[in-house]
Amino acid sequence: MIAQETEKRLIPRGGMEWDRVVxxxxxxxxxxxxxxxxxxxxxxxxxxxxxxxxxxxxQHDPNVPDWNPRxxxxxxxxxxxxxxxxxxxxPLKRVGPRGSGQWQWVSWDEALTxxxxxxxxxxxxxxxxxxxxxxxxxxxxxxxRVAFESLMAYLGVATFDVNSEIGDDHAGTAQVFGQPxxxxxxxxxxxxxxxxxxxxxxxxTNIPNYHFITEARYNGTKIITIxxxxxxxxxxxxLWVPVKIGSDAALALAMAQVxxxxxxxxxxxxREQ
Length: 273
Description:
By secondary structure, this protein is an alpha/beta fold. It has helices at residues 73-77, 108-126, 146-155, 162-166, 171-177, 202-205, 207-216, 232-235, 248-261, 267-272; strands spanning 4-8, 20-25, 37-43, 46-52, 92-94, 103-105, 132-133, 158-159, 194-198, 222-226, 239-241.
């Protein structure tokens, strides 16, 4: 969480007390337009609870639902990870065979020196092209990655595309169009005539933005969900297509075949795009 202190006070609320309230952003991997602005209540240096702040800039268009409040059930409890006994707080060095689970604590100086020495040996003997930079699920853009990514680029180390590494984005879209997300700001969902949900479950994975979809139904927006299970998003859909697991590609090709044969496409748009 990224914190910024907003006020200092000691006020009972629901039997709970706090010393100060700080603004934080949720660290969950919601991916698309995430980082909800929240209030964290701190007592004796410990975050006791997190609440929605409802302090995002208001929607300027009065005909579109407001962004506020943002935050979900996952974000309200994510601070518990800071105090979980299983959280890794110190460097560990493997002392047994790979996969044995045998580790020992080492100092930060020992850990960083060991990594630096190994990298220098590899660079000198095999060259920087033998090293690959894998960012992992936390390898997305952010201030926490600037120094490391700059060092890797300066040394000439190749960096894998994070979408290829993790594999939880729309791989086909990324390969065809160069990026996994082809969309606009989430509030524009409110203007959609049809919302097509396939390969996702935004009612569960995009909770802060999902209200734009449900509220769009008041405007007559139709929701179609293709999912093998009766997911939370399928429950809200006007049409649920219970596709069999593993047959998504066949269904997509069949739909494309109909579009082409019956010329349901806009030829000028395709030529332009």
